Amino acid sequence: MITRRSLLVTGLALLGTRGDAAEVVRQVPRATLDEAAGAKTSAVAILAGGCFWGVQAVYQRTEGVLNAVSGYAGGEKSNAKYGVVSSGRTAHAEAVEITYDPAKITYGKLLQIFFSIVHDPTQLNRQGPDVGPQYRSALFPIDDEQARIARAYLTQIEQAEVFDFTPVTKIEMNKAFFPAEDYHQDYLVKNPRQPYIMFHDMPKLADLKRVFPEVWREKPVLVGAPRRLGRQGAGS
């Protein structure tokens, strides 16, 4: 199996290229159904779109995001460990838990960024060079309101025919989130010149700044030492 880890030793051969998931920026419309801005003082969204390094990095640079933690969602607490998840034999996806201020950014806006620049939702169980169900495109709504918004938005972008192929993004309800190991947190900030990061993730930040300048923040919000207890759901 080709993974991002194996690409680290051959990454220099890819100079001048961009990762598959970041090659095309789609003009995905804003969500017509969204949560009321400022209805809550804080909220959480859990998204999975391939390697969590790049997903986390994009939202760390998004205004209104209070925290973005890399982790695992969709499976059991007992196997929420990188060495097991990376085998592809668990129900987990590499995911990011985003805590945000609804007065500054909404769930629908987070989804617009997710489908526009974070990943390619038409790739089934992979993103670029990363292959396996742990790299699937998935949304993990934490309540019925988010589920309604997510379903409506998927329908909206399908009807808009933004993509050449139908998105394969899954909506998975009542799943727990478990933070990943500390060395995965703030990974892009700590390793900006690593080949995988340079080729597959740094372009996403450039796209965020260019496509969504209204939410771009120069200084990323960092995790530091994440909490070890995950958001509790049916999978815990």
Structure description:
The strands form two sheets. The protein has a six-stranded mixed beta sheet with strand order 7-6-1-3-2-8. By secondary structure, it is an alpha+beta fold. It has one domain (4-15, 37-213): 2-Layer Sandwich (Peptide Methionine Sulfoxide Reductase, Chain A). The chain contains seven helices and eight strands; from the N terminus they run αβαβαβαβββαββαα. The longest helix is centred in the last third of the chain and has 17 residues, at 195-211.
Q: How much helicity do the residues have?
A: 25-40%
Q: Under the CATH scheme, which architecture would be assigned?
A: 2-Layer Sandwich
Which homologous superfamily in CATH is the superfamily?
Answer: Peptide methionine sulphoxide reductase MsrA
Give the biggest beta sheet: 6 strands, mixed
